[in-house]
Amino acid sequence: MPARTLPTIPIADVKSRNTAESCYVTIGTKVYDVTDFINDHPGGGDLILEHGGQDVEEIMKDEISHSHSVAAYEILDEHFVGFVATDKALDAVTKSQKPAEIVPLPPSKQGMAELKMNGAANGVPSKQVYATTGLSSEEDLSKETDPASDYQAHKFLDLSRPLFLQIWNGGFSKDFYLEQVHRPRHYKGGDSAPLFGNFLEPLSKTAWWVVPTIWLPPVMYGAWLGFQNLSSAPEAAAYWALGLFLWTLVEYILHRCLFHIDYYLPDNRVGITAHFLLHGIHHYLPMDKYRLVMPPTLFVVLAFPFWKLAHTVFAYNWFAAVTVFSGGIFGYISYDLTHYFLHHRNLPAWYRQLKKYHLRHHFADYQNGFGVTSRFWDWVFNTELEMPPPKVVKAT
Question: Domains (ranges, CATH) in the chain?
Fold first, then answer.
């Protein structure tokens, strides 16, 4: 069977593909159409567009920016569309008697072979992955999952069907559920996998901008009440700052002791389903941008006890309680937006370490690294992420 002849693409055409509607990048003579991956890129789509129409070999190897893993190159290979046709190559094709036979040769495969993390045994290639998640790097979080093969391999959830009833009727043991829900998947095209598959589906999705739109106005009003009615502006500012500081502790406690209650779950479908809806779905589909921030109804349920607590502790002054609570809710808004941006946006240099830290929580060690806006409480409670060498397993 004759080898498939891949197309050659003029260099001018490659350079012009630098928008969200059509984006090409190159490595050497290879051309990749990364348009569909822009919204799924863990570093944010802006970073891809910044290098649209250009050779990305150096930036992908850049240690300061972020040295990309084998998984990143595997994802890139899925978007391979042809070879660069330089002006010199086009001229040769034009003058040739057999232009179809003149195809630029791909670059040497030696570089890719060296990136594959040696360790093959008996001719079977190996890949380094973290035992708890089955992933090797943050790029794996955006590597598309094939629903049929994933379900056949793991017998857990079929991403092409509504997830809620599969969890409820699955009869999964707690141990099996926890093992699978912490092995991240990625739904096709960066969309949301169906959760309910009926009229409840829209209620399960929350865009990031909903959080500040709904909660900033009451927070600002509560802060205004405090500054108007407490004895001085410094006193009001102190109460507000106290609320903001307390939120960082609440964030840590909620994430560690509620969202990751994990092994204290009752081993029944009620506990497993509640865990999945509360936080499990986020670890199962961590790049789902519509199930990343907290739905308003769930936030009200979780916030109400803290409203009562604030008014109990500060019973001597209603305005002090409101001001502390407002500072805390502002902390929550900052947390949810930070969480979203850590997953889906390119961040300033001073924020990138926090992004890497949080994504490690997803692809390497979900039992540590509970701070999202800050690592402070992880340091206090000795749950800072440490990165042991990943376990070497045979690739399937």
Answer: 8-115 (3.10.120.10), 201-384 (no CATH)
Number of neighbours of residue 92 by Cβ within 10 angstroms: 14
Residues of the chain with confidence (pLDDT) below 70: 1-6, 43, 62-67, 69-71, 74, 85-127, 387-396
Alpha helices in 101-232 (DSSP H): 110-115, 147-154, 163-169, 174-181, 210-229
**244-300: per-residue pLDDT in tens?**
999 999 999 999 999 999 989 999 999 999 999 999 999 999 999 999 999 999 899
Residue from 370, 386, 359 nearest 136 by CA: 359
Question: What does pTM read for this prediction?
Answer: 0.70
- The burial class, CB within 10 Å (0-12 / 13-18 / 19+), for 28 is middle
Res 41: pLDDT: 78
Cα distance between residue 36 and residue 144, in whole Å = 11
